[in-house]
Amino acid sequence: MTEMHYLTSAVYETLRLFPPVQFDSKFALNDDVLPDGTIVRKGDRVTYHPYAMGRMESIWGPDRLEFRPERWLNDDGLFVPRSPYEYPVFQGGSRVCLGKEMAIVEMKTVILAVIRRFNVRVADPGHEPRFSPGLTATVSGGLRMVVEEVKR
């Protein structure tokens, strides 16, 4: 699983555009100052929005709305992760998700199991998936797919 750089990049790119948790909040234990100079007082609630951050031109560039796994690969084709503060899907710092690596392995395992047995495509390629507001990600109206078993 560790040598599948393009698959890892595709998983990260998918989660960048469609994070499982659209927004999250934390409460400050002490007074602090954010990197942009914003003062945070003890007890303040700070909310961040991975869905919006995954679409910010200042972080991802002018092609930010495109699904482009190559953005995660270096010149040698090796996966290179971004800062968890630019890509907060698994949070960052002392609050980084303990199950992150297991989740990535599980996603890659499922993807490989599916693509070995099935051809999968979006039923309507012109359909733009839209998130429904909520704590966890849901797609408004679903995403219709065509799944065909591969004949061997």
From TrEMBL:
Pfam families assigned: p450
Domain of life: Eukaryota
Protein name: Cytochrome P450
Entry cofactors: heme
Organism: Linum tenue
Homology family: Belongs to the cytochrome P450 family.
Binding-site positions, heme: C97
Source lineage: Eukaryota, Viridiplantae, Streptophyta, Embryophyta, Tracheophyta
Keyword annotations of the record: Heme, Iron, Metal-binding, Monooxygenase, Oxidoreductase
Recorded GO MF terms: heme binding; iron ion binding; monooxygenase activity; oxidoreductase activity, acting on paired donors, with incorporation or reduction of molecular oxygen
